[in-house]
Write a structure and sequence with these properties.
The complex is a heterodimer of chains A (about 160) and B (about 260).
Chain A lengths: L3 H23 L2 H17 L9 H19 L20 H13 L3 H11 L5 H8 L3 H15 L3 H9 L2
Helix pairs in contact in A: 1-2, 1-3, 2-3, 3-5, 3-6, 5-7, 6-7, 7-8
Chain B lengths: L4 H13 L8 H33 L5 E3 L16 E22 L3 E7 L3 E8 L3 E7 L2 E10 L5 E7 L8 E11 H5 L13 H11 L2 E21 L4 E6 L5 E6 L13
Antiparallel strand pairs in B: 1-11, 2-9, 3-8, 4-7, 4-9, 5-6, 5-8, 6-7, 10-11
Classes of the chains: A mainly alpha (about 160), B alpha+beta (about 260).
Chain lengths: ~160, ~260
């Protein structure tokens, strides 16, 4: 049975990684700490039900809490239909392209952002991401596809996603 | 130039690597747990008030009006129970006083002026403690407070149910001692029996003053008529009105004592 010692071990081992995940969701370190404190507090309150691997539960709270705060606060990060134009040119402009992608990331709605972060930072598969976000695998793929289109990520990457099981 | 998915991974990893701030500690998490619990407790009080109001609306006795046309016996068995309201107390939202506690081993006095007939006193502690609460000089409640060995954050919450009227000036006294002071030579984790007035004062006096952390909150509380208690209502009666109308109803046993009327 999970107990306080388990929880302390979990926080010690995972809080750093979880904080970075929270940061990528909200793009502000102070908010990320706030988000993670809330997620870990809720995880502790439900610790006996969390299961062998607490990560999916904590990721779910992070994503849901971020989405809820985003809806309430409207922190100037509103999704847009028209993307900011990335710097175009040759490989020397890659830095400009990265900045443009960062800007585009902050404009993604919370669910698309969560899909990108869970897939490309937490390295989770579609099935795990679907379980965390409480949606179907098909929804994860379509959200990812839309997000990557907004980020102007290489179409080969988008094709690779649709082939994955 | 568009990015590949590996570029995206690198970008996210790089952005996330530039960590700033102190990070999140267990103490941070524990403080957030306490905040969530307090918020849930307040929400529960509001919900209970709403449920109580709904219960009061739902318990009006029902009658059935019939007009016999064919001479058949109108006293058909349609007993409907009448309900006797019970009593309960409910803490409200209005806070009379909220103060930080910074000293243990000493009886701290918190005078307040209340506008409700009852009062809810809540004490929460930042360290494992044992708390005593007096109201107008009388030891009313005591217990463990703060995070104990069971890793549960205990909160003292007490409502005066003496039936008196606490509107006006009152005094709440609170004293905190380390939990082992009250536990004496008991095995850790075993329940601590309540101490009497003199014993409580002795324990506090012998502890001596020390720095600690906590908070006392004094808020309104009201006597409420809720959760009706069913009584025996199985005797059918027919009420004959002067206009010839007959009302089928039920006769109930008399309650043992007259319920107080709702206040608030």
């Amino acid at each position: 049975m999970r107990d306080r010692a388990d929880f302390e071990r979990y926080v010690q081992q995972r809080s750093d990684r979880l904080l970075r995940t929270a940061y990528l969701l909200c793009r502000d370190w102070a908010t990320a700490e706030d988000l993670l404190q809330t997620a870990l507090a809720k995880a502790w309150l439900a610790w006996r039900r969390v299961g062998e691997n607490p990560d999916p539960y904590v990721y779910r709270i992070l994503a849901n809490t971020h989405a809820s705060w985003w809806r309430r606060r409207w922190r100037g990060e509103q999704p847009t239909e028209v993307l900011p134009e990335p710097a175009v040119g040759d490989s020397a402009d890659l830095l400009g392209s990265r900045d443009a992608v960062r800007q585009a990331l902050t404009c993604l709605p919370p669910k698309q952002r969560a899909v990108i972060v869970l897939r490309y930072f937490a390295d989770l598969g579609d099935a795990q991401t679907a379980e965390i976000l409480g949606c179907s695998v098909a929804t994860v793929r379509s959200q990812a596809s839309r997000a990557l289109a907004r980020l102007r990520v290489d179409s080969a990457a988008r094709s690779a996603m649709s082939l994955e099981g | 130039m568009t990015m590949t998915d590996n570029d995206l991974r690198d970008l996210l990893a790089r952005d996330a690597s530039e960590a700033r701030g102190a990070g999140v500690t267990l103490a941070d998490v524990d403080r957030r747990v306490r905040r969530i619990r307090r918020r849930r407790g307040a929400a529960g009080a509001v919900l209970a008030a709403g449920l109580a109001a709904a219960a009061m609306v739902a318990t009006a006795p029902r009658t059935v009006t019939i007009t016999p046309a064919d001479g058949s016996d109108p006293a058909a068995a349609m007993a409907g129970p009448s309900l006797t309201p019970g009593v309960s107390y409910l803490a409200g939202q209005r806070v009379f006083l909220e103060k930080e506690i910074e000293m243990g081993g000493r009886v701290l006095r918190f005078p307040y002026t209340g506008i409700s007939t009852s009062v809810n006193v809540q004490v929460d502690c930042r360290e494992p403690s044992y708390a005593f609460v007096w109201l107008n000089g009388r030891l009313e409640t005591q217990g463990v407070c703060g995070v104990q060995r069971d890793q549960v954050d205990h909160l003292i919450s007490w409502i005066d149910e003496s039936g008196g009227d606490l509107r006006g000036d009152n005094e709440v006294d609170v004293a905190l001692v380390p939990v082992q002071r009250a536990a004496a030579d008991r095995d850790p984790g075993t329940p601590i029996p309540a101490l009497g007035e003199h014993e409580a004062e002795r324990v506090v006096g012998e502890t001596g003053e020390y720095r600690t952390g906590g908070r006392v909150t004094i808020r309104e509380a009201w006597l409420l008529a809720v959760a009706p208690t069913p009584v025996n209502c199985d005797r059918d009666i027919v009420i004959h009105k002067p206009n010839g109308q007959e009302i089928l109803s039920s006769a109930c046993d008399q309650p043992s004592e007259k319920p107080p009327s709702p206040q608030g």
